[in-house]
Write a structure and sequence with these properties.
about 40% helix, single chain, 12 strands, seven-stranded mixed beta sheet, Aspartate Aminotransferase, domain 2, alpha/beta
Length: about 400
């Protein structure tokens, strides 16, 4: 392996922009640079490009173009639902899972602590494999009587897939609005908006080989949200601001390609992960969520007594880029709230690292990674024994 070129195993954090996606975006930086709200030809070209992208996003999840609201990212889309849905309610009772991404947990907690209105928050517990416990869902719905429910489709750290459609059916019977953050699942497993039976769903471009700076909230036609950004009334009045045309165009193209390539990519990364995890288990690794249904590309594991952040640093020196947790939480390093919710002991949770595969990874890279990991672990244990 050429040590100058790093092997990228962090696709749950972000992905390289696909060549075809970049090619589709390029004209809208210079030649077709018009403001899509302008009435002249350059503006009309921009508006048409956005409309086409809206159709591509909708087609990839079996929704209608009118249901797609473009935002600047997944965090904004999740906040638009959480805060937007509560904007028309006098009192709010929110249920989220304990393993949600911070951009769902944080606004839910902020609302619960607000003094402006009556608001409460209930978190759903998960089992040791990271699955939401359905009996706790039944208990929470019955006792708490929520009007807002948000449960992610697949966890960004463990890759564990949740029973969203089942939870949605139970929530709807009580009249609650149900949302799912499908950012990590989208592009890795089939995501069908009608089948999930939710009122709203969040998607993001940069997880599916599209550009950063584009995402979408998919909404049920009957859902009423209070905008969080006011101005010229863009995106059906739900998200004012001049649209990022190149990024939206790239997002649309990435959705189109994802739909075409998903089956092939899933088979490929499943084969790689199966081989990887067999070798990791032989090394004594503990794989989090292994007994649950997971995204095919995600392996979240720990080698006991080997600190995760230290392992990440040493493996980068060896030419491999992996993560010690969720990239979106790197500004506030510390224990994983996901592993904590799963009941993982803090001393083991500190050893956790995440490897997330993409369509360009190879079996040769997996074998080279295992070799580098074996050498690194031996060296770290040798250093530790000398220090003792």
């Amino acid at each position: 392996m050429n040590k100058i070129e790093k092997v990228y195993f962090d696709h749950n954090a972000t992905t390289r922009v696909d060549d075809e996606v970049l090619e589709a975006m390029m004209p809208y930086f210079q030649n077709k640079f018009g403001n899509p709200s302008s009435g002249h030809n350059l503006g009309i070209a921009g508006r048409q490009a956005i409309n086409h992208a809206r159709e591509q996003v909708a087609d990839s999840i079996e929704a209608q173009p009118s249901q797609v609201v473009f935002t600047s990212g997944g965090s904004e889309a999740n906040n638009l639902f959480i805060q937007g849905a509560t904007g028309h309610l006098k009192s709010t009772r929110i249920i989220v899972s304990a393993i949600e991404h911070p951009c769902v947990l944080r606004p839910a907690k902020e609302l619960a602590q607000s003094t402006n209105k009556e608001c409460g928050l209930r978190q759903l517990i998960v089992d040791r494999s990271g699955r939401i416990i359905m009996s706790d869902v039944d208990k929470a719905l019955s006792e708490y009587r929520p009007n807002i429910v948000s449960v992610m489709l697949a966890n960004n750290e463990t890759g564990v897939i949740q029973e969203v459609a089942n939870i949605a059916e139970k929530s709807r019977k009580l009249g609650a609005l149900i949302h799912t953050d499908a950012i990590q699942a989208f592009g890795k497993i089939p995501v069908n908006f009608p089948s999930l039976n939710v009122h709203a769903m969040t998607l993001s471009s940069h997880k599916i080989y599209g550009p950063k700076g584009a995402a979408a909230l998919i909404i049920d036609k009957e859902l009423v949200l209070r905008p969080q950004i006011f101005g010229g009334g863009h995106e059906g009045g739900l998200r004012s601001g001049t649209e990022n045309v190149p990024a939206i165009v790239g997002f649309g193209k990435a959705c189109e390609l994802s739909k075409l390539r998903m089956e092939r990519t899933t088979i490929h990364v499943t084969r790689l992960r199966t081989h990887l995890e067999k070798r990791l288990i032989e090394m004594g690794a503990i794989i989090f969520g292994m007994n649950a249904t997971r995204l095919p590309n995600t392996c979240y594991f720990a080698l006991p007594d080997i600190e995760g952040e230290t392992l990440v640093i040493h493996l980068e020196r060896a030419g491999f880029l992996i993560a010690s947790g969720a990239a979106c939480s790197s500004a506030a390093p510390g224990k994983s709230h996901v592993l904590d919710a799963m009941g993982v002991e803090p001393i083991l949770a500190r050893c956790a690292v995440r490897l997330s595969l993409g369509n360009s990874n190879t079996l040769e890279q997996i074998n080279e990674f295992i070799s580098a990991l074996t050498c690194t672990v031996k060296e770290l244990k040798r250093i530790s024994s000398v220090m003792i």
